[in-house]
Every structure is written in structure tokens, then in C-alpha cells.
Amino acid sequence: MKREHEDLKLIYIGYHPRSNDGSSPRSLSHSDAIEVMDDFNKKQGEGNLRAEVVEIAFSGYCAVAVMETTVNKVWQYL
Q: Are 68 and 52 in contact (CB under 8 A)?
């Protein structure tokens, strides 16, 4: 998988960080995950929630995690 000039956080399905809303990561291609992340961040503006692309270990796929920036915790997975 190409890492596009950044180190992606690595998560494991079944052992991923818990989200505030109970959602689980969805397997997406890297380009689809970037598109979802960009759309969310454009709509969010300057709020406390920011979407980040995370790599799903041993799968070749990515997911999009929405982080609560003030406490750096996963809020939800898109």
C-alpha cells in the first residue's frame, strides 16, 4: 500500500480503539478513505472533530476515524 507522504496509524479489527458512538471501522481503499476524510473535514470546518485515515493491519485496506481533537480520542468511524 502506498503511504502518500504520511505515516498512517495502524489499527487491528477486533482490537481497534473504541468509539464514542459504538461504530466499527469500515474497510475502504486508500483513495476512497481519503475522499471520505476530505468530505468530512470540509463539512466540519474548524470544529473539535477531525477525520483521519487509519490503516487496517494485515488487510491492505484503510478506515476513516473521526478524532475528538481536544482529548485525541476516537469519536466515531465513518
A: no
Question: pLDDT digits over 7-61, tens only?
Answer: 678 888 777 778 888 888 999 999 999 999 999 999 998 889 999 999 999 999 9
Asked if residues 63 and 28 have their Cβ atoms less than 8 Å apart, the reply is yes
Residue 40 φ/ψ, nearest 5 degrees? -60, -45
Question: pTM, whole model, 2 decimals?
Answer: 0.82
* C-alpha of 48 from chain center: 15
CA 29/CA 55 separation, integer angstroms: 10
